[in-house]
């Protein structure tokens, strides 16, 4: 558990710092360190944290069961991920109506993804992992709103092409996860018996 908690502290510590840091150009740490060194340090800390989270999650298996989710929540999570994947992809394809409506689709997708996994997993390591992502995504969205960052400008041009790409790529990722990619990446099949 120590590795996972250390990873959570490093990974989200860097991200929380980024959300809370001053936006005054003369006071920013990037101005003191330089843009390149700051981004390099931020990336290294984030990667180290992520590696510790992954390692710690696996090291905690088998984890203490905090609650036993009903079987139907596993199926519900599969449907929830069907929503989460296109939303996540919408953050990285040309701007469409999904991105314009959700303002910060990556954070929206993380919240949906984490909530679905919390419903379907009752082990301590899963609760720590998905709970920390959910809490951070909610926190970061609040901070963005406080800074007046409402996503795309109101006059931004959007296209349904971005939405079509988001849905198609999201469905491909979702299908790949169901049919083996989840087990390859995370050691657990989405549906028991399919691995």
UniProtKB/TrEMBL annotation:
Keywords: Membrane, Transmembrane, Transmembrane helix. Residues 4-188 form the NnrU domain. One of its GO terms (cellular component) is membrane. It is a multi-pass membrane protein. The keyword Transmembrane helix applies. It is found in: Membrane. It holds the Pfam family NnrU. It comes from the Bacteria. The chain crosses the membrane at residues 40-60, 72-93, 113-139, 160-181. This is NnrU family protein. It comes from Henriciella algicola.
């Amino acid at each position: 558990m120590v590795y996972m908690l250390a990873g959570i502290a490093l990974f989200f510590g860097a991200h929380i710092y980024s959300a809370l840091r001053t936006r005054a150009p003369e006071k920013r740490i990037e101005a003191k360190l330089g843009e390149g060194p700051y981004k390099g340090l931020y990336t290294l800390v984030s990667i180290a944290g992520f590696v510790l989270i992954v390692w710690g999650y696996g090291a905690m298996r088998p984890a203490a069961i905090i609650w036993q989710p009903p079987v139907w929540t596993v199926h519900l999570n599969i449907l929830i991920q069907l929503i989460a994947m296109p939303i996540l992809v919408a953050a990285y394809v040309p701007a469409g109506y999904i991105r314009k409506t959700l303002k910060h689709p990556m954070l929206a997708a993380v919240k949906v993804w984490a909530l679905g996994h919390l419903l379907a997993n009752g082990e301590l390591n899963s609760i720590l992992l998905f709970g920390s992502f959910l809490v951070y995504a909610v926190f970061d969205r609040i901070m963005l709103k406080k800074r007046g960052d409402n996503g795309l400008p109101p006059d931004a041009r959007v296209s349904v092409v971005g939405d079509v790409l988001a849905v198609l790529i999201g469905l491909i990722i979702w299908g790949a996860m169901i049919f083996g990619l989840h087990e390859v990446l995370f050691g657990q099949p989405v549906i028991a018996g399919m691995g």
